[in-house]
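Incident log, support desk, overnight shift.

02:14 A customer reports that sequence design results differ from what the structure should imply. Their input is reproduced verbatim below. On-call engineer (initials T.W.) acknowledged and began investigating.
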């Protein structure tokens, strides 16, 4: 699995749409095999999406991301794990060891990882998935 994380000052970059650098991690069976820093240098969403595809990224862990760019990445087959903030190494360690749950490193002011309104119906759906043993975001796929 190949994961990209936009970086800034040893943290996850606040907004992926304008991030200049990503840390690309190769993870195999819960072990980090390789890491490299890559420049994005993309002016448009299409170029940004294409660059991640060129890097053969499977998942993107980020803080904020615009809905159009998120949809573009999802349609390209890239899993997006939004609303994640915190110290870079802590996020990586948690993601590799057990995956990121709905509340791990959740960006302040966000009620859940998926964009949209918070309401009881969505909360019930989330709990149902968790109770059925479905893990949302994991590095051990």
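02:41 Re-run completed on a clean worker. Output:
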């Amino acid at each position: 699995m190949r994961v990209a994380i936009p970086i800034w000052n040893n943290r996850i970059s606040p907004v992926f749409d304008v991030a200049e650098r990503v840390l690309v991690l190769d993870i195999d069976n819960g072990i980090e095999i390789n890491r490299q820093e890559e420049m994005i240098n993309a002016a448009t969403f299409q170029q940004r999406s294409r660059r991640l595809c060129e890097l053969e990224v499977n998942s993107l862990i980020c803080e904020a991301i615009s809905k159009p760019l998120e949809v573009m990445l999802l349609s390209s087959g890239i899993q997006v794990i939004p609303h994640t903030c915190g110290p870079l190494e802590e996020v990586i360690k948690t993601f590799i060891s057990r995956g990121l749950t709905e509340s791990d490193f959740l960006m302040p002011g966000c009620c859940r990882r998926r964009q949209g309104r918070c309401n009881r119906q969505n909360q019930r759906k989330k709990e149902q998935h968790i109770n059925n043993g479905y893990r949302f975001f994991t590095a051990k796929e």
